[in-house]
């Protein structure tokens, strides 16, 4: 069975944003759905494990990635339905997320503006239910198509099946590593009704979605390091959700601690970046590896010397321990160890 783009000992360092040295035993770039079936059958014959990578902006790869790594570049956008108010789109999993945001804005299809400049592919967006500035993927999600890695079976997942949560879904939970998301169906609005609830957007009165996108891009560029220049995987820790009583008690000591109560009022989200900063770790780059919380946004761990993932994880563990010792709050990495 021929797979034209199959490579052995494939260098993954340029295929993820943290730039750790990493080699895949085998890799294949998939641009068509039929390539994927062929690749999965090839791996099954050899009893090789299979994992999928999009743009590698939310993962920490091991030095050696065994089996077959599928690089998802499935492309295409199709309008499924359109009414006066809404449009439904089916987008292939390998499409660039930011490209999609710009494309939809240009078509006057609204709802993705706050999610501008998030790196990565459309197929990875449901994995952690990407979110920014008060908007999450699940707000516009209808369904997705995925292929089971073991059986090759195609399956459709509804929003309920995906079990979306805060930076969470079934694909980061019990179904982790089991599926390759090949397409996502979204429902967007044909009327511009911006969500400006977050502080950095609160003073805006955008006349168009393009204006809002431009602003989101500017805010992000002012504080987030460009992975092409300073390797990073975005926020390295997920904001912890803790019991509201614990949050209120901490506020008695740390009056400025930002606390965002959940809808039921029983829990509260705490900004992990604030905890890291208050622990004195912002801009504290390790002398031997350079790894540390970025000086303009402490939640982002940078890897300027492009060192191994084991060193990144060790530094992350050190940071998490310091935060836990100071605040009694456990913070866990958001990017996935790959595989
Ligand atoms: P990858 O990193 O390639 O993969 C991530 C995980 O998903 C891996 O476990 C992989 O196996 C799995 N996966 C990838 N594709 C598929 C697929 N098709 N099917 C099944 N599983 C798959 N995230 C936010 O939520 N909000 C932000 O604002 C945000 N900002 C960021 C800013 C920067 C500078 C960076 C570097 C990252 C940021 N992220 C943000 C994280 C990241 O961009 C998102 O999680 C994005 O969706 C990852 O897409 P990817 O294609 O790079 O996935
Ligand atoms: P920020 O504006 O400095 O805010 C710090 C934290 O406070 C954020 O994590 C955010 O939670 C929370 N927050 C702020 N205002 C809030 C509100 N009105 N209601 C509820 N929570 C609020 O954050 P930032 O680092 O510049 O990032 C801006 C946005 O981009 C955030 O939404 C963030 O999630 C997203 N982002 C994500 C990544 C990633 O890799 N996951 C990387 C960069 C930026 P939330 O994170 O829950 O929004």
From TrEMBL:
Which Gene3D superfamilies does its entry note?
A: 3.30.465.10, UDP-N-acetylenolpyruvoylglucosamine reductase, C-terminal domain, Uridine Diphospho-n-acetylenolpyruvylglucosamine Reductase, domain 2
- Full protein name: UDP-N-acetylenolpyruvoylglucosamine reductase
What the entry lists under Pfam families is as follows: FAD_binding_4 (PF01565), MurB_C (PF02873)
This protein's superkingdom? Bacteria
Q: What does this protein do?
A: Cell wall formation.
User: Transmembrane helix among the record's keywords?
Assistant: no
Domain FAD-binding PCMH-type, chain residue ranges per copy: 19-191
The cellular location(s) given in this protein's UniProt record come to:
Cytoplasm
| Family membership noted in the UniProt record | Belongs to the MurB family.
Q: Which reaction does it catalyse?
A: UDP-N-acetyl-alpha-D-muramate + NADP(+) = UDP-N-acetyl-3-O-(1-carboxyvinyl)-alpha-D-glucosamine + NADPH + H(+)
**Keyword field:** Cell cycle, Cell division, Cell shape, Cell wall biogenesis/degradation, Cytoplasm, FAD, Flavoprotein, NADP, Oxidoreductase, Peptidoglycan synthesis
> What HAMAP family does this protein map onto?
MurB
- One MF annotation (Gene Ontology) recorded for this entry: UDP-N-acetylmuramate dehydrogenase activity
> Can the keyword Cell wall biogenesis/degradation be found in this entry's annotation?
yes
GO BP: cell division; cell wall organization; peptidoglycan biosynthetic process; regulation of cell shape
Which metal ions or organic cofactors does this protein require, according to UniProt?
A: FAD
Q: What EC number(s) does the entry state?
A: 1.3.1.98
Q: In which pathway does it act?
A: Cell wall biogenesis; peptidoglycan biosynthesis
Q: Which InterPro entries match?
A: FAD-bd_PCMH (IPR016166), FAD-bd_PCMH-like_sf (IPR036318), FAD-bd_PCMH_sub1 (IPR016167), FAD-bd_PCMH_sub2 (IPR016169), MurB (IPR003170), MurB_C (IPR011601), MurB_C_sf (IPR036635), Oxid_FAD_bind_N (IPR006094)
Cross-referenced NCBIfam families, in alphabetical order? murB, PRK00046.1
GO CC, sorted alphabetically, is: cytosol
Q: Which residues form the active site?
A: 167, 235 (proton donor), 334
